[in-house]
Design a protein that fits this description.
59 residues; mainly alpha
Length: 59
């Protein structure tokens, strides 16, 4: 029984914190196109890094 009580307490604390975080972020302004552009640049950069063949370096 103590384990169940612990899990219920943990769930209640988690739920309270989640509700508090939702209330904090409810009135925030969305980032919009800038966030999409930065994410696109991030994906393109890592795509270039991992999918391009290695560079040949001539000494």
């Amino acid at each position: 029984m103590p384990r169940s009580t612990h899990m219920i307490k943990y769930y209640r604390e988690y739920n309270d914190q989640l509700e508090e975080d939702i209330q904090k972020t409810k009135n925030t302004k969305t980032k919009g196109p800038l966030a999409f552009f930065l994410f696109y640049c991030y994906v393109v950069f890592w795509g270039y890094v991992f999918w391009m063949p290695p560079l040949t370096i001539v000494n």
